[in-house]
What we know:
By secondary structure, the chain is an alpha+beta fold. The chain has helices at 2-36, 40-84, 99-134, 153-165, 181-193, 232-267, 274-305, 318-330, 353-369, 417-423, 434-444; strands at residues 138-142, 148-151, 197-203, 206-217, 220-230, 314-315, 337-342, 350-351, 376-385, 388-395, 448-454, 458-466.
Amino acid sequence: MVRSIVGKLWITIIVLVAVVISTLGLFLLRYIDVEFGDMSTDIKHLFLWTSLVGFLLTTFFAFFLMSKITQPLRNLTRATNAIAEGDYRNRVDVASQDEIGELAEAFNRMAERLDATIRDLTYEKEQMSSILRSMTDAVVTFGTSGQIVSTNPHGEQLLRTWARGVGVVTQLHVMDSWMPADIQQMYVTASTEDRELVMRLHVGQQAWSVVMDPLYAHGQRIGVVTVLRDATEEARLDKLRNDFVANVSHELRTPIALIQGYSEALQDDVASGAHQRQELVDIIHSEATRMGRLVGDLLDLARMQARKIALHIEPLPLEPLLAHVLRKFSSVTNEITLTLVCTATKPTPEADAYRMEQVFTNLIDNAIRHCTAGDTVTVHITNPNERTVRIDVIDSGEGIDAEHIPYVFERFYKADTSRARKKNPMHTGGTGLGLAIAQQLVHAHGGTISVSSVRNEQTTFSVTLPLSHADEESCLP
């Protein structure tokens, strides 16, 4: 457009110049005819050649000047089109210091600032995109009509999981019936009330912490951004903490009540004689011992879970240790047969003697607690391979129901405690921490512990420990 206008302007000027020269030529020719007579022919020829040369020179300079103006303008047009197509690094050469040169310099400054702005915007966009991709939280942006505008990879994966749960895989562009109802309600509230919302959402077996906030641009609400964080482990820990407090309170309530009651009886001199007072003192002592055992177990468990327990690892002959543990229970289990069987060739793991005694004491005590008169408890030592030794604590008691087996190593977990106490009144209920402590100690030694049971037939707790390769002694018969 500019090129066309400039070209027409210069053609018009050339035509006007030619018309003026022609008019002057005609006037001068008539004047020469009148004034000079016979000399007019030579003068006319000279004048005609002079006019022709002047016309040609005028035309040449006209086209020269036109090219000097239009070429920079064509360069500006070409650079402008390149920037419009996304090449923000395009510049024009400044060939003069006139108005066109100033225009070229202004264009280059504009292009540089535009290029810098685009680079900054691209960097910020890539940085934000990288942050969203690296986030472990799911981020989902909804538009004003509920459509899903954008998500990060975790957000898209979560949405597809929810959609797949109701048989929808492709319809992820809108908030539809496959979206949890709580999310839809939060979206409506955040959109209408223009405020941040925070809640915990349960979907199936998972818990999610949801934060939803209105999204604005130029003062106008353009949607809602939602951040979903997997809070399943946090919810599980909250439940464990609440259960822990409830169980500790329950375990402490009974001995505290008994100690308080019987101590008040002694204080009020309710006991009729020395024998009755001694019985009350024995009960108080027993309950205090029970409380001390519970507190000690809790401290041991806390230290083990915090990895603050010190183990004195050394080669440990298992048969003398297990024989010693069984003897501790023989005096109170006359009606239950306790047996130690050793078929291992190298029953000497690398372990802490005191902690291993604690493990097998807890396992054997648990086995006896679920037995009645006539039942048996057998400790069997074997070598499943050359690198490990296995200790099975087998009892022929009431067994464990299949639904309870996954939870037997949890703190304070007790299965059928009331029935067990009725069948075996010699033993009061334990603290519910023995198996949890045994599991932590076995794992601390690099071993494994497992349980299998058949109801009303037998229960087997199996401990596997690494062997000491330096010891080559065989098991005693």
